[in-house]
Amino acid sequence: MFQSKSNLRQSINFRFLMAPLLAVSASGCGTSALPEADFNASEGRCYSMTPLLETLPQGSQIGSLVEVERGCTFNRVWATYAEDESPNSPYFYISANVLDGQSPFVRDFTLDGTAEISGPIFPKEAYTSEGNSAVESYESCQKLGVELGNARQMQDFHIVTDIAGQSACISTYTFNGKLTGNLRILSKPDIMMNIRYFRELDRQPYDYDADDIAELMLPVAAELNIPNRDWPSPLGKNEEQDSERR
Fold this sequence. Notes:
It is a single chain. The chain is α+β, with helices and mostly antiparallel strands. It has a domain at 50-102 and 127-223: Protein Transport Mog1p, Chain A. The chain has 5 helices and 9 strands; from the N terminus they run H-E-E-E-E-H-H-E-E-E-E-E-H-H. Strands 1-2-3-4-9-8-7-6-5 form a 9-stranded mixed beta sheet, sandwiched between helices. The longest helix is centred in the first third of the chain and has 21 residues, at 6-26.
């Protein structure tokens, strides 16, 4: 683990965590009104989202990449791995996302672990709408994608391939001066595995090849524990209590 991670943590966390915090503020309830959180993804405590932690890579290192952060929020668990501790280091943001606001994984996850997510602060309908958009984007990627190894430079930006028997789609694009790769697997109807790769542009966007970015992401995808029909299952009340005790 890095000795100093503050700059990289801040740049990563700001992007992915501001949305739910802004939703809380917009509801008229400031963060000071919320109960203190008592969960720790690194120690395996994420309330009803806990089983999804097992879908993420479990090692502190993937090749030359080192784990920077591991966390969970209302509808997502994630881990970040980076090449070094500098703010501009290339990094991977790996997540398992719940697509259905009525999912048992989401239902019992709250900041204090005692009440359901409901009402204007945490609208389940918003998670479902976000999930539907994610599925539509994934299906569009599948339709536009070409098989790995067949991408034509400056013409094909979506790659389709199989990972552990699951169909994956990898999109390559540039945004805000960064090259981004986005790998998605719809592993269960209510769970999408996602890996996003970020790197500063060091040459013209048209010089990047979608096949090359896909090949770069595949070793990271091989570290996923991709859910299947029977796994993972939401914790029962007794199991959840036992897990929190551990």
